[in-house]
Design goal:
Blueprint: H1 9-60
């Protein structure tokens, strides 16, 4: 008794997988960018601003 081929399942599942992958990828990208990256850049910028102010103050002395 042969097994009947499964038709149409792969195509439907493919689009679901692609949609989920793109959605989760974009969500993860936004989470990284706004949750970590921008805060790290802000901390770095604040450090360099503080360092520049200290150098300017020491140069005046």
């Amino acid at each position: 008794m042969p097994i009947a081929p499964i038709t149409g399942k792969l195509r439907k599942r493919f689009w679901l997988d692609i949609g989920c992958a793109l959605g989760l990828g974009v969500s993860a990208g936004y989470a990284y960018w706004y949750g970590y990256h921008l805060k790290a850049v802000e901390n770095q910028e604040n450090f360099y601003i503080k360092l520049e102010r200290e150098r300017a103050r020491n140069a005046q002395s």
